[in-house]
Amino acid sequence: MILTCSFNGDKDESATRLSDRADTERAVKILMAILFATKNHLRAEWGAFPGVGLNTAAGSQFLHAEYSDLLPSGVMGYDHRGLGIPLQLTFFIEQYIKKGYQRGWYHAPQASQMTVQLNTLVDAYGRMETIRLTPVPIAHLIHEKQVLALFGMFLPFAMVTEMGWWAIPLTTFVVFTLYGIDGIAGQLEDPFGSNRNDINMAAIVEDIRSEILVLVDEWKRVGEHNDESQWFMGAYGGGSPLAGIPTFRVMSFDD
Question: Cα 42 vs. chain centroid, distance in angstroms?
């Protein structure tokens, strides 16, 4: 939506046109950086952002390769002070939306819709962080394991009268099944890790990045000719100027 609305500003042939397009491209890259920052934050991969990481020496600074071409120059992270990087980056997007509205790139309803989408993104980030930071209560875990152990101890005595020695393998099977379910629940408690049974966040984020980069390249090509009627027509044929543009919505991993 940012790329589409920016065409209203590109019709101005003033000296600031190139600067405005650079701001739009910068905003899109920051949106992509929010996705990578969300992935790293949920996996507790601190230090993937310039600044002092929780597991790095004080004052150390390095930039993860994922962020090398997505962030504004000079920006610093404050995750060591409790500010999530995804939340920090949304301030840049809010600033861009306000700037675009003041310059007449889009009307108030469009600015409001983009703000709502940004708030939805922040809400999804908050929900995922809540899932990661809300473990199963310790009292529940202790009680659950005690009950399973007692059940496994007394189950053979309840079955031995009617089943004889078959009570031993049947009890083993039942206890193995119950403890297996308990182990699976423990693995699913944090679905944002790097295990094979966790959500493949790296693949999801990289796929979104590839799609957005295609849109950005096409937007830049059309902008060079200043003809929005050619937006994606070269790839998708005639019809609506916006025909064929993939429609993105803010998604959470709850979907």
Answer: 9
Angle 2-10/85-102 helices, nearest 10 degrees?
30
Residue 64 has a pLDDT of 58
Per-residue pLDDT, 48: 54
Is the separation of the CB atoms in 37 and 28 below 8 Å?
A: no
Quick check: 44 and 198 in contact, CB under 8 A? Answer: no
Whole-number Å distance between alpha carbons of 151 and 155: 6
| Cβ proximity of 244 and 235 under 8 Å | yes
CA 71, CA 66: separation in Å to the nearest integer? 10
Tokens of 174: 């039942």
Helix (H, G, I), strand (E, B) or coil at 198: coil
Going by C-alpha positions, the residue among 71, 178, 184, 198 that lies closest to residue 131 is 198
The first and second tokens of residue 91, run together, are 């301030």
pLDDT tens digits along 107-142: 888 889 889 999 999 999 889 888 888 888 888 888
Per-residue pLDDT of 184-218, as tens digits, reads: 888 888 888 888 888 888 888 889 888 888 888 88
Reference 178, options 211, 207, 145, 139; nearest CA is: 145
Give the three-class secondary structure for 171: helix
Among 98, 70, 97, 101, smallest CA distance to 86 is for: 70
Contact criterion met (CB below 8 Å) for 37 and 86: yes
Q: What is the pTM of this model?
A: 0.68
Distance CA 105, CA 114 (A): 13
43 backbone dihedrals φ, ψ, rounded to 5°:
-90, 5
CB 252 within 8 A of CB 128: yes
Q: Find where tokens 């908050």 sit.
A: 126
